[in-house]
Amino acid sequence: MKVLVVGGGGREHAIVRKVSESKRVDKIYAAPGNAGIAELAECVDISVMDAEKLVAFAKEKGVDFTIIGPDDPLVAGVADAFTEAGMKVFGPSKKAAILEGSKAFSKDLMKKYNIPSAAYETFDNADAAIEYLETAKMPIVLKADGLALGKGVLICNNLDEAKAGVKTLMLDKQFGSAGDRIVIEEFMTGREVSVLCFCDGTHIKPMTSAQDHKRAKDGDQGLNTGGMGTFSPSPFYTDDVDKFCKEHIYQATMDAMKAEGRDFTGVMFCGLMLTEDGPKVLEYNARFGDPETQVVLPRMKNDIIDVMEACVDGRLSDIELEFEDNAAVCVVLASDGYPESYEKGKVIEGLERFDGVDGYYCFHAGTKLSDGRIVTNGGRVLGITATGENLKKARANAYAATEWISFENKYMRHDIGKAIDDIE
Ligand code: AMP
Ligand code: GLY
């Protein structure tokens, strides 16, 4: 079987690695891929947004199954282009990916179908938003309606910050048209958990839980990033929480999307806040999380192609998802200065240390081959993942492995998984 993976980050490297373990797969292509993915797949320089070229490439090579990693192509309808060409594709249609593509849509859906989430109002006019804020309870959360690289959420502690936030999103248009409309949401407190779920349009099966660390600096300080590290499972995601979420969040969302004529196939990522009043949805994504995937897939026992194909064919109910009874931690090695300004093109040393070492993974996020050497090519450079029999051991292993790698402006957080210590 020939598989095409669309994307070129750490998430896609983790997907490609898992696909490469499938006995059913004998050839993997990646568009555009990266230097790490190139060790397992043939990389082709086609943009993730170029539906026409991607479909033509897949046809020419006789690709049997395509997996779309990132949000932008899904929200833009790249999966639909494959379906229309009669090709099997894993990832939601444009109609379903709106669950991530518009926060106003997802909030309205949750309200209509009684799915627990924060109270909110939607605004497409800055004056009206500010008038509302003048009597609102602080802190408060402002969210750009559209896609903003995970950075369109502003937590405002007081009215001045909130007014400045409205200006940033709606008037200065820091995130372009994504901020034409904003959602203003009640501030919630609690533990955050990410649960990625396989979906076949009707059935939904959650994978093991994970937790991301979105801020750039230790102690959850600094700017929001794409994610600086993850651990799995989350010790806060108990059986009771799981039971509640399966009924009131996961299946409820699948049913709601179906009722709206937007059957969801692919991975639904539920970002949850475990509040005093029970679990509530922070956000949905229409894809695998990055870097959640880097800790979830290494723990999955199933053949990923079997599961993904069952999703596309509408027979996910036949599949029993199985995860190792262990833990995994991923520490992102970034370029110093990320997510603002940083230098690229630094030579990376030590990658070979991971070769053939069980339980240790070096996922490439922003790397490229230059004059025969692998160099840094992004803010997030590598995701160092290690497993262990429990979270503490996995964390110690992952941090030990971060020392195997060196490059000039290497930066990482030192407290990934620190929350684990709170429960023991
Ligand atoms: P989102 O992209 O919607 O997940 O938001 C990014 C981050 O902002 C989340 O991971 C939370 O840490 C935080 N956040 C989002 N919405 C809320 C909320 N209503 N209350 C508190 N924190 C929030
Ligand atoms: N790690 C959060 C995301 O993928 O959006």
List the helices and strands and how they pair.
Layout: E1 2-7, H1 10-20, E2 27-32, E3 42-43, H2 51-61, E4 65-68, H3 71-76, H4 78-84, E5 89-90, H5 94-101, H6 103-112, E6 120-123, H7 126-133, E7 140-144, E8 153-156, H8 159-171, E9 182-186, E10 191-200, E11 204-212, E12 215-217, E13 221-224, E14 229-232, H9 239-259, E15 265-275, E16 278-285, H10 293-296, H11 304-313, E17 327-335, E18 360-364, E19 367-370, E20 373-376, E21 380-388, H12 391-402, E22 410-411
Parallel strand pairs: 1-2, 1-4, 2-3, 4-5
Antiparallel strand pairs: 6-9, 7-8, 7-9, 10-11, 10-15, 11-14, 12-13, 14-17, 15-16, 17-21, 17-22, 18-21, 19-20
Helix pairs in contact: 7-8
Explain how this protein is built.
The chain has helices at 10-20, 51-61, 71-76, 78-84, 94-101, 103-112, 126-133, 159-171, 239-259, 293-296, 304-313, 391-402; strands at 2-7, 27-32, 42-43, 65-68, 89-90, 120-123, 140-144, 153-156, 182-186, 191-200, 204-212, 215-217, 221-224, 229-232, 265-275, 278-285, 327-335, 360-364, 367-370, 373-376, 380-388, 410-411. With 424 residues, the protein is an alpha+beta fold. It folds into three domains: 2-94, Rossmann fold, CATH 3.40.50.20; 119-186, 2-Layer Sandwich (Dna Ligase, domain 1); 188-424, ATP-grasp fold, B domain (D-amino Acid Aminotransferase, Chain A, domain 1). The strands form five sheets. Strands 10, 11, 14, 15, 16, 17, 18, 21 and 22 form a nine-stranded antiparallel sheet that branches. Helix 7 (126-133) runs antiparallel to helix 8. The longest helix is centred in the middle third of the chain and has 21 residues, at 239-259. The chain is globular, with a radius of gyration of 21 Å. The mean pLDDT is 96. The chain binds adenosine monophosphate (AMP) and glycine. Glycine is lined by residues 150, 212, 227, 285, 289-290, 292.
